[in-house]
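Dear Dr. L.,

I hope this message finds you well. Following up on our conversation about the binding site, I have prepared a predicted three-dimensional model of the protein together with nicotinamide-adenine-dinucleotide. For your records, I am including the exact sequence and ligand specification that went into the calculation, followed by the structure tokens. Please feel free to forward this to your student if that is useful.
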Amino acid sequence: MTKTYALVGTGGRARMFYEAILGPHREQSRLVALCDTNQVRMDYTNKVIVGELSGEAVPAYRAADFARMLQECRPDTVIVTSIDRTHHQYIVAALDAGCDVITEKPMTTDREKCQEILDAVERTGRSVRVTFNYRYAPHNAALRELVAAGAIGTVTSVHFEWLLDTRHGADYFRRWHRDKRNSGGLMVHKSTHHFDLVNFWLGSRPDTVFAMGDLRFYGRANAEERGVFTPYTRTTNVEAARNDPFAISLTDNPVQQGLYWDAEKEDGYQRDQNVFGDGISIEDTMSVMVRYRNKAVMTYSLYAYAPWEGFNVALNGTAGRLELTVHENSYINAGSSPDTEGAAKGVRLYHFPMHGEPRQIPIAHAEGGHGGGDKIMLEEIFGNAEPRPGYGADHRDGALSILTGIAANQSFATGLPVDVKTLLRL
Ligand SMILES: NC(=O)c1ccc[n+]([C@@H]2O[C@H](COP(=O)([O-])OP(=O)(O)OC[C@H]3O[C@@H](n4cnc5c(N)ncnc54)[C@H](O)[C@@H]3O)[C@@H](O)[C@H]2O)c1
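The resulting structure of the complex is given below.
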């Protein structure tokens, strides 16, 4: 049976979904509508659909006409790939109209919006799927299976650091994410992936969170202090920015030109802001301690100006230790094929049994974005792959994954630990 989809938010990430629907999964899926605040971006999307994917142009609705779109096009499922702070509006309205929802991460940005989503799921009985692609990356799946099989006994602590480099990491400081109201900061926007992985690996949920975070590298004040301040607000076609390694030029990349440069006249959104400019309200240097319901504790850090992109994680248990290091392909959004975004370049997973010889666990290489997780997840969502039990993330997983970041943001502000139970009814 063919399933029908409407897509809201036609920026960089949308492509992975409409390519899947119009490409390998076209027998089972049909895209019936697009929705966005920006007509130029919707027109660009239709141009790609017709010109590159040999599809038919899809009706395009302005964001203000979302309810009319649902009525006229009657999608089974709404796919939400708009900016983070708007996800809840579309999720709740779609559920209330009787649709299921597939949403990009983070499910939303704060606890009030999260509660609205949880209430809507309960009220309507419809489903929300959060696209946690990293769960499906073979190395992350292997870690989960090893823990579940008891390879290290009971997990007692986790040490996790994620590095965003000066290409991919810097991109959050050029775009809408730099305003914390849009993204919840990197603790929510980015770390939702990482906190979800820990919940998924441990089969537990966060109880107490204590965190410190600051803006130490990007932003005008830091640049002035280091004597590297550059006075331009944006970087495309700016002569003075020509040799700035943090500058991007939207007119050098046809996708970025079509999606952002040409669309700018409509909403004024500049996708190439100076990372050393004013108006950045997110952190770039963050450390978090979490105590989980199963009593495991985690030390976690994220910084966004690293010389390489990827992560190190160690899980310690009563019978040994697992260590995973992954180097990822760095990228900037809509700057290359979605297949290369965060692809795994180097993976090392070691098992250190408490009394035995350490051994390296072989990991099959998976092609594609986000450690190979994107393709495997898409096959499960749109294709015929049998769902892997415990891998598909729902509204509860979406909520639990942002709770750590929301609590961390609160802890940044107050200097105090946060009891996660006080944040949401879940
Ligand atoms: N899972 C992943 O690995 C992954 C990777 C990239 C992006 N994402 C997520 O995808 C989402 C989109 O990110 P992106 O990189 O494509 O950003 P983008 O800036 O390229 O696109 C965002 C789109 O949302 C639209 N928009 C803004 N306000 C809107 C509103 N009120 N109503 C409807 N549309 C609105 C914009 O016009 C734009 O077309 C984000 O939530 C992001 O976290 C997830």
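In brief: The chain is about 35% helix and 25% strand.

With kind regards,
A. P.
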